[in-house]
Predict the structure.
Amino acid sequence: MVALADTIAAQEKEGLRLNHLPNTILQEVKDLEAAGTKTKLVVVGMLPGRKTMSVVDPEKIMEPAIRYGYERGMQDLPEMKHFWMSS
């Protein structure tokens, strides 16, 4: 499971969460695990150097988000391979 935030209220104000939902990503992970699903939560957070962002404004976010997504994906690759291979 990849998330921008773990539903902390401050992250909602930063634009990492579009709205307030009644449950949290952390609760969703617990529910999945309770049902027998092996999970891996990756909380990506804010793009480096940014204090806020709008996930609904493609002109402001698309290019830096794609670049950061690629860089973060490559950084997380060994850990993700290990997770999938140990399942």
Q: What stands out?
A: Strands lie at 2-3, 42-43. The radius of gyration is 15 Å. DSSP finds three helices and two strands in the chain.
